[in-house]
Amino acid sequence: YSRDNSYLRDFDELYGQKIKEIKSAAVVVKEEASVYDTIVTLFLKDIGSLFIIDQQESLIGVVSRKDLLKITIGEGDIKKMPVSVIMTRMPNIITVKDEDTILEAAKLIVKYKIDSLPVVKIEEGSAESGQQLYKVIGRVTKTNIARVFVDFGLKI
Ligand code: ADP
């Protein structure tokens, strides 16, 4: 393929791309939203997972298609049940930051067998609470990463 080391440059250019260059817009729902409304949002926004935020707009959970399907085949009233009951919660949420690379994101997606990662920016909350807020500033999915490979293949 190459006698020199140009493939190393290609490698860096491909895997070293920053999350902020490839992320897409996140869709968030409030913790008090019902499971029913969350399903409607998933269809309207045409995405596979949604991120759940609290009153301070800090990330507290993730809900996937299968989480929603599972609760739908159960007995509960999905119009009354808040989505926060079924979400995967912090601190178990796998996140990335704008400055991380696509290689780091791809490794996390493979390791944890998940479809999407919230992109977060950590902010200091109020002085009294001393809490850190996880502001959701995007999402990275398997599709984002596949697109990077396709675009790169077309370019070289
Ligand atoms: P699906 O469940 O529709 O196949 P995923 O593979 O993304 O979609 O989700 C698998 C499980 O992992 C779900 O229970 C979901 O709540 C959880 N999950 C999804 N994304 C994350 C994440 N970024 N961090 C932690 N858990 C996640």
Describe it for me?
- The protein is α+β, with helices and mostly antiparallel strands and 156 residues long.
- It has a single domain, classed as CBS-domain (Roll), CATH 3.10.580.10.
- Helices cover 37% and strands 22% of the residues.
- The chain has 6 helices and 6 strands.
- The chain has helices at residues 6-15, 19-22, 35-45, 65-72, 102-112, 142-155; strands at 28-30, 49-53, 59-64, 88-89, 116-124, 132-141.
- The strands form 2 sheets. Strands 1-2-3-4 form a 4-stranded mixed sheet.
- β2 (49-53) and β3 form a beta hairpin.
- The longest helix has 14 residues, at 142-155.
- It is globular, with a radius of gyration of 18 Å.
- The mean pLDDT is 94.
- The structure holds adenosine-5'-diphosphate.
- Adenosine-5'-diphosphate binds next to β3, α4 and β5.
- Residues 22-78, 87-156 form the CBS domain.
- Keywords: CBS domain, Repeat.
- This is CBS domain-containing protein.
Number of domains: 1
From the alpha carbons, calculate the radius of gyration and give it in angstroms. 18 Å
Fraction of residues in helices? 25-40%
Q: Decide which structural class fits the backbone.
A: alpha+beta
Identify every distinct bound molecule in the structure, by name, code or SMILES. adenosine-5'-diphosphate
- In terms of per-residue confidence, which ranges show pLDDT below 50 for 5 or more consecutive residues? none
Mean pLDDT: 94
Number of H- or I-type helical stretches = 6
* CATH class category name: Alpha Beta
Proportion of β residues?
15-25%
CATH architecture: Roll
Q: What string gives the helices and strands in order?
A: HHEHEEHEHEEH
Euclidean distance between termini CA atoms: 12 Å
> Reading side by side through the largest sheet, how are the strands ordered?
1-2-3-4
Per DSSP E runs of 2 or more residues, the count of β-strands stands at: 6
Determine the CATH superfamily. Answer: CBS-domain
CATH third-level topology = CBS-domain
Protein name: CBS domain-containing protein
Keywords: CBS domain, Repeat
